[in-house]
């Protein structure tokens, strides 16, 4: 294989270029980015896409994400105390003991509702709003800040103009640790 092919192959497989490679292949225009926020990457990418659609920066967005560990995980010595000892993740469960290494998987095509209706698309859900936050200081980096989480929920309800009692589905990030959940 000559060096030019190796360089193209290398560039096309870099994490930072992955979204651009997809855009190139599908001839997509507009912003194209990799979002890496560890285990919340899919939800963070979804939020960014919703904001771009709302601003009119695009009229369709593809949000996709997955994390695959192709090499054996590094055995952790418990420094951050979030890894499950038996390898099972039991989010929001009384028997939770930690998480595994990985991320949520997401693959969606998003459009403004009026455009999706005009295009006669199958509509599986309507996203009324989304918000992102970082908790700031707490008792530890893997521990939630209860006030920051409460503020996030109130902000989400206000921005989406939805009453909490009307919510039919909510996606949440769970750590599968007793402290985190």
SSE blueprint and pairings:
Layout: H1 3-12, H2 18-26, H3 41-55, E1 61-65, E2 106-110, H4 113-118, H5 146-160
Antiparallel strand pairs: 1-2
Give an account of the 3D structure.
The chain has 181 residues and is mainly alpha-helical. 30% of the residues lie in helices and 6% in strands. It is built from five helices and two strands. The chain has helices at residues 3-12, 18-26, 41-55, 113-118, 146-160; strands spanning 61-65, 106-110. Strands 1-2 form a two-stranded antiparallel ribbon. The protein is globular. The chain starts with a helix and ends in a 21-residue tail after the last helix.
Q: What general form does the structure show?
A: globular
Major sheet strand order: 1-2
Query: Quick one: how many beta strands?
Result: 2
* Number of continuous helical runs: 5
Helix/strand/pairing category: mainly alpha
Strand content: 5-15%
Low-confidence sequence ranges: none
Radius of gyration: 19 Å
How much helicity do the residues have?
A: 25-40%
**N- to C-terminal separation?**
50 Å
Overall average residue pLDDT: 84
| SSE string | HHHEEHH
Main sheet summary: 2 strands, antiparallel
């Amino acid at each position: 294989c000559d060096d030019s092919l190796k360089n193209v192959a290398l560039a096309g497989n870099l994490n930072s270029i992955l979204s651009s490679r997809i855009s190139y292949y599908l001839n997509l225009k507009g912003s194209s980015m990799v979002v890496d926020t560890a285990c919340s990457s899919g939800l963070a990418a979804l939020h960014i896409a919703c904001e771009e659609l709302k601003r009119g920066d695009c009229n369709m967005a593809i949000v996709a994400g997955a994390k695959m560990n192709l090499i054996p995980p590094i055995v952790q010595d418990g420094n951050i105390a979030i890894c499950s000892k038996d390898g099972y993740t039991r989010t929001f469960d009384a028997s939770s003991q930690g998480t595994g290494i990985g991320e949520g998987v997401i693959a969606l095509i998003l459009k403004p509702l009026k455009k999706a209706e005009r295009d006669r698309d199958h509509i599986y859900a309507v996203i009324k709003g989304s918000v992102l936050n970082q908790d700031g200081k707490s008792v530890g980096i893997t521990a939630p800040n209860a006030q920051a989480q409460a503020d996030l929920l109130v902000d989400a309800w206000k921005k989406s103009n939805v009453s909490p009692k009307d919510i039919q589905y909510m996606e949440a990030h769970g750590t599968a640790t007793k402290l985190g959940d």
